[in-house]
């Protein structure tokens, strides 16, 4: 069966990052941690690959030097059930030195870009008329961490 997964390339932090993400996002788990075999560049016995799931989606993190680095050109999107979950995931992803960005984006301490969004956002962007969607987008553009109630209020404003 064909399967799509995301691979994140780190210098030495693959396991630390995977464990951080699994702790932050519900329905996530560490799979296998594979150590570097003889003959592979790097310290023999150090962590080479980590398989894990985030919200049920398969992921892979590996250590290889030098990593190419992460950019905002690719981000991972976490769709949160409610504001409490969004707040918890947002705060967890910022632990240890993450940086906030506009419109629900952040960069975690490992340099990976994330969008932490309420489940309501895609629904609001597809529903209603152009004016309602425009108000949602205007509200969104003023936010750092997204506020689901404020987005809903913008949609329903007259």
List the helices and strands and how they pair.
Layout: E1 6-10, H1 14-24, E2 29-35, E3 47-54, E4 57-63, E5 75-80, H2 83-94, E6 99-100, E7 105-107, E8 113-118, H3 120-126, H4 130-140, H5 148-156
Parallel strand pairs: 1-4, 5-8
Antiparallel strand pairs: 2-3, 3-4, 6-7, 7-8
Could you tell me the strand content as a percent range? 25-35%
Termini Cα gap: 49 Å
Shape descriptor reads elongated
Helix/strand order, N-terminal first: EHEEEEHEEEHHH
Helical amount among residues, as a percent range?
A: 25-40%
Task: Name the strands of the widest sheet in spatial order.
Answer: 1-4-3-2
The total domain count is 2
Main beta sheet = 4 strands, mixed
Just name the CATH architecture of the largest domain.
Roll
- Summed over residues and divided by their number, the pLDDT gives a mean of 94
What's the CATH class of the largest domain, please?
Alpha Beta
- As residue ranges, the low-confidence spans are none
């Amino acid at each position: 069966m064909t399967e799509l997964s995301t691979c994140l390339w780190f210098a030495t932090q693959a396991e630390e990052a995977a464990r951080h993400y699994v702790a932050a996002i519900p329905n996530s788990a560490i799979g296998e941690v594979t150590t570097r075999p003889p003959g592979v560049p790097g310290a023999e016995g150090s962590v080479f690959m980590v398989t894990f799931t985030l919200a049920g989606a398969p992921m892979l993190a590996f250590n290889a030097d030098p990593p190419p680095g992460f950019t905002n050109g690719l981000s991972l999107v976490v769709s949160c059930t409610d504001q409490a979950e969004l707040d918890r995931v947002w705060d967890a992803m910022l632990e240890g030195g993450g940086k906030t960005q506009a419109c629900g984006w952040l960069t975690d301490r490992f340099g990976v870009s994330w969008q932490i969004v309420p489940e309501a956002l895609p629904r609001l962007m597809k529903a209603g008329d152009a004016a309602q969607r425009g108000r949602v987008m205007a509200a969104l553009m003023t936010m750092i961490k997204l506020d689901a109630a404020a987005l809903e209020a913008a949609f329903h404003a007259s």
